[in-house]
User: Which sequence fits this backbone?
């Protein structure tokens, strides 16, 4: 058999094996949803029957949606491979530039190609995303978006992706053409610098384009967070509240920043009847709301159904997040990701000019565009490698979560962390029971019961 056909059928076979494996795991978890009728003994005092049944219904609906979504995506992916999608889009991109002075420019053709890929991807994913948002999330009380807000959000996101990705693509192609045999080293350095730049710029300038960030007002909560940061020597610069409630009822907290400019961000849905927040009119008055969102709804959403956490629980969750920083988990992840990127770019440098790979996907032109090579190698050739790495990183992540919980426990926040995790779990309608194989493959965080057991153990 001709080598390119081996590559073609190998890629297609692995794609379907991985897809069927994912379907098998999803069906295993579906059986857990269907057959689990009792609240786990550990949670009987903190999880009522109504919330348990809601979580079960939410889990089943998401599971059904996941099965349908995966089938749709797999059929589209298979069709794209079988009908030589890369060749069709590349030829269309060249056609778009045929009557311009850029008709022979690989960089401009690549930018048009990427724009076409991103446009098709956005259009095809839009119905799926809309169904998830306005049917699944709406049904279970999480969606807070109007349709107009949803469309505006998608348009802004699409435009932002093009503004960022097109110049980066042009620069990457230039580096490959200019860098000689060791271009992968220069490309890796460019990727590292670019990723660090985006990590720095995104929270400050890009994220506020989608959500409103407001400084946490002075008060008890702010003082206690500052004391906690000082205790672990965390260089806290500012504390923000992000207006996530106009988008979803799900809650979260995180921090960002380099060196001595760390910021902590709390979702407004995380706060529960906090007087420092609720009585501070500045928080509402200074916010710029969409036309469809009334100011008085903002406070109501925070108080909705008594969801959220008290101050002790918020501090415990932040203690967990600070544990990731103190134990250098973030630096560890950054190093692993950059080493992995270097390996992938090294292999790309070795393979990208191999005619057989291009022919395997119906690309028979004498020239080998960089962007086509990147798409084929990173998306398909590396697929088995990416699967193994993803599972390894998921397993590692679960262990690091246990370590961060242990750090919060050493700060004397064990009880509050337990109740905080339960509050988060209940507010987000997390189901308390998961199939072990499904969880091991998908969950970057341990199951709630596993975390509670680890926290409750004596040192």
Assistant:
């Amino acid at each position: 058999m001709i080598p390119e056909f081996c590559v073609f059928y190998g890629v297609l076979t692995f794609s379907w094996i991985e897809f069927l494996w994912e379907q098998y795991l999803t069906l295993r978890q579906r059986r857990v949803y269907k057959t689990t009728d009792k609240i786990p003994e550990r949670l009987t005092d903190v999880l009522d029957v109504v919330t348990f049944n809601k979580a079960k219904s939410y889990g089943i609906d998401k599971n059904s949606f996941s099965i349908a979504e995966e089938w749709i995506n797999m059929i589209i992916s298979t069709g794209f491979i079988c009908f030589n999608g890369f060749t069709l889009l590349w030829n269309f991109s060249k056609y778009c530039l045929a009557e311009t002075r850029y008709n022979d420019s690989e960089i401009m053709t690549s930018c048009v190609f990427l724009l076409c890929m991103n446009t098709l991807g956005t259009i095809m994913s839009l119905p799926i995303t809309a169904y998830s948002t306005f049917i699944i999330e709406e049904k279970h009380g999480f969606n807070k978006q109007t349709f107009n807000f949803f469309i505006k959000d998608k348009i802004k996101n699409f435009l932002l992706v093009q503004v960022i990705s097109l110049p980066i693509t042009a620069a990457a192609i230039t580096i490959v053409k200019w860098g000689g045999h060791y271009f992968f080293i220069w490309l890796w350095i460019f990727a590292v610098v670019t990723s660090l730049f985006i990590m720095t710029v995104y929270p400050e300038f890009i994220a506020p384009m989608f959500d409103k960030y407001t400084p946490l007002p002075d008060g008890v909560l702010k003082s206690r967070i500052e004391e906690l940061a000082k205790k672990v020597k965390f260089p806290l610069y500012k504390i923000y509240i992000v207006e996530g409630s106009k988008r979803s009822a799900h809650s979260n907290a995180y921090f960002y920043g380099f060196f001595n400019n760390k910021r902590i961000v709390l979702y407004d849905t995380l706060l529960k009847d906090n007087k420092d927040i609720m009585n501070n009119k500045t928080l509402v008055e200074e916010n710029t709301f969409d036309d469809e969102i009334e100011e008085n709804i903002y406070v109501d959403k925070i108080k909705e159904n008594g969801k959220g956490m008290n101050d002790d629980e918020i501090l415990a969750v932040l203690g967990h997040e600070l544990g990731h920083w103190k134990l250098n988990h973030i630096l560890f992840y950054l190093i692993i990701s950059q080493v992995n990127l270097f390996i992938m770019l090294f292999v790309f440098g070795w393979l990208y000019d191999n005619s057989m790979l291009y022919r395997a996907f119906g690309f028979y032109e004498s020239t080998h565009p960089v962007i086509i090579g990147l798409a084929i190698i990173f998306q398909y050739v590396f697929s088995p490698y990416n699967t193994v790495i993803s599972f390894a990183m998921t397993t590692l992540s679960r262990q690091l979560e246990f370590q961060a919980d242990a750090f919060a426990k050493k700060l004397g926040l064990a009880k509050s962390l337990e109740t905080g995790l339960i509050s988060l779990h209940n507010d987000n309608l997390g189901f308390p029971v998961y199939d072990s194989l499904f969880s091991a493959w998908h969950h970057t965080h341990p199951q709630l019961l596993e975390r509670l057991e680890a926290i409750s153990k004596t040192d």
Summary: The beta strands are 213-215, 236-242, 253-256, 262-267.
